[in-house]
Structure formats: C-alpha cells, structure tokens
C-alpha cells in the first residue's frame, strides 16, 4: 500500500503546507479547479550551476508535486531557467542535477513529460518505483507526500529542513 | 543507554581521526523495515560529521547489496533526511534519550 488515493494526496498535501508555513518555507498550493488532479504543491528556489562554462550562475528552479492518476503516487515535476530567462533542456538538466549518472540510466530517471495539470512539457522524475519505495516504510508513513518529497527531492537538489521530520502530530 | 565498546571499535577504523575522541561520537540505533536484511548489531557509534549518505553507503556495503539497489534512511516513519545532511544536525533535531533512531529499507529506486 505504497500508493495513495487522490483524496489522501489532497489531505496530505494540505498538511504538508501547514508544516511548511510553520517552518517559514515558501511552498504554496496551486489549485486550477477542484477536479482530480488539478491541485498541486509548488515551490521555487535558486541554485548555483556546478559544471561547464556556466558554473556559478544562478538557476531558478520551480518544483511541482503533482498527483499521478496512472500511478496513484505523487510525482515531482520541475523546470529550470537560467538568469537570462532561457530554459534548461534535457541535456542541460541532466548535467546540472545528475552529473554522475550515465545517460542510459538517465532515460529511466529524469525525462521530459507532460505536466498533468498545465499540459506543458516539464522535467519529471519517473514514478514507476515510487509506490514500492514508499511501501518499504515499515508502518505506513503518516504523510506519504512528505515522505515522497524528502526521498526524491534531494535527487534534484530540493532539500527539506530536518524539522519537517518532527511534525508527527499531523496524522 | 551505555555505549558498547565493540561498537566503538567497529566504526572507528573508517570514521575516527586523532582529534575526535569517542566521547564526541553519536550513538545511532538502526532498525530494518520492509524486506531488507537485518543487521544483528543495532547500536553503532558514528562520527557526528559523517553524512546521511555515508551511513547509506555503509549499510549498503555491510549487507553486500546489489549496485542497482538503494538504501533509504528515514526517521519518525515519515521523513527521509537529505543525503548531505550531517549526523550531528540530525541528532540535534531527532535524537531522543541520547541516541538517534534511524530506520532503513532497500529498494530499487528507478527503472
């Protein structure tokens, strides 16, 4: 039971938002309309490029945590822009976020996919193992959305404060 | 919880420098969940400046897992700390009764 329903996702996303507000993070809940799956969590941050001739340049990244109807798990979508406004393509994104992975592996990890709410191409982490990984958490996690973000976020430089782990009262 | 001398020895080869003495180390308790093999010795002492990913690699090596499998570490049934987080910070936030309780599980992450 690593998967979760749309209703669970919505409840847990709201709990996550409450924790974020308490901790002073900049997560917001975007709601296009009340239909499944048109509500998602969003946050953005600026990170420094690490390799190539643009090392040290600031890249602004917007992360979306969207419910995947096909897989019944949260999915991480994101888009990265350079400071001149240009978009990082797939190769640039791989170089920036996963410099140590092989290209053959990367096709199974991070590719461009259709954003289920915005219907635009976004970079996305593949969801096929997410339910399995979440299931390994002994007792089911109190908030699978939080678990998901803390597990998969670091792959694309999205780090949560340690204090997120303290909020056990949200069950 | 008293620190066991043999657990000190077990990790000290790879983690200690002359500067840090055993007293400054952090006691962690490892719990297996899901289908991961159990490590008999559950209490370990670790250099506070080691990262979460170092512990993940340690468990991975200890259990001789396949390269495609990954160790996931988490606290409180819910939260997986970032791999570059150091144990000291994690202990300050999540330590109880003088030790840090960590849960671990394994799975293939992708593909």
TrEMBL record, chain A:
Pfam families: Autophagy_act_C (PF03987). Gene3D superfamilies: 3.30.1460.50. GO terms for biological process: autophagosome assembly; autophagy of mitochondrion; protein modification by small protein conjugation. Keywords: Autophagy, Transferase, Ubl conjugation pathway. GO terms for cellular component: cytosol. InterPro entries: Atg3/Atg10. One of its GO terms (molecular function) is Atg12 conjugating enzyme activity. Coiled coil: none annotated. Belongs to the ATG10 family. This is Ubiquitin-like-conjugating enzyme ATG10. It comes from Drosophila erecta. The gene is Dere\GG23309.
Automatic annotation (TrEMBL), chain B:
InterPro entries: Atg12 (IPR007242), Ubiquitin-like_domsf (IPR029071). Pfam families: APG12 (PF04110). One of its GO terms (molecular function) is Atg8-family ligase activity. One of its GO terms (cellular component) is Atg12-Atg5-Atg16 complex. Gene3D superfamilies: Phosphatidylinositol 3-kinase Catalytic Subunit, Chain A, domain 1. Keywords: Autophagy, Isopeptide bond, Ubl conjugation pathway. Residues 1-22 are annotated as: Disordered. Forms a conjugate with ATG5. Ubiquitin-like protein involved in autophagic vesicle formation. Belongs to the ATG12 family. This is Ubiquitin-like protein ATG12. It comes from Drosophila erecta (Fruit fly). The gene is Dere\GG16648.
């Amino acid at each position: 039971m690593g998967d979760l329903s749309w209703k669970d996702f919505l409840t847990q996303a709201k709990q996550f938002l409450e924790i974020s507000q308490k901790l002073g993070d900049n997560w917001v809940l975007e709601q296009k309309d009340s239909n499944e799956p048109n509500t998602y969590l969003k946050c953005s941050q600026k990170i420094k490029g690490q390799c190539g001739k643009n090392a040290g340049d600031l890249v602004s990244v917007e992360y979306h945590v969207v419910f995947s109807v096909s897989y019944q798990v949260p999915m991480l979508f994101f888009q990265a822009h350079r400071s001149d406004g240009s978009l990082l393509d797939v190769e640039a994104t791989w170089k920036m976020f996963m410099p140590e992975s092989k290209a053959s592996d990367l096709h199974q990890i991070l590719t461009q996919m259709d954003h289920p709410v915005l219907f635009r191409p976004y970079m996305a982490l593949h969801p096929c193992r997410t339910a399995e990984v979440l299931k390994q958490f002994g007792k089911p996690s109190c908030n699978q959305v939080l678990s998901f973000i803390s597990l998969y976020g670091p792959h694309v430089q999205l780090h949560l404060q340690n204090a997120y782990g303290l909020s056990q009262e949200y069950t | 919880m008293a620190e066991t001398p043999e657990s000190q020895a077990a990790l000290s080869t790879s983690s200690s420098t002359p500067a840090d003495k055993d007293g400054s180390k952090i006691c962690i308790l490892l719990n297996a969940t899901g289908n991961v093999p159990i490590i008999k010795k559950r209490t370990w002492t670790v250099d506070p400046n080691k990262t979460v990913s170092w512990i993940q690699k340690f468990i991975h090596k200890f259990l001789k897992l396949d390269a495609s499998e990954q160790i996931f570490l988490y606290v409180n049934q819910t939260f997986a700390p970032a791999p570059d987080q150091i144990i000291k910070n994690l202990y300050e936030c999540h330590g109880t009764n003088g030790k840090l309780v960590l849960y671990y599980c394994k799975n293939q992450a992708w593909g």
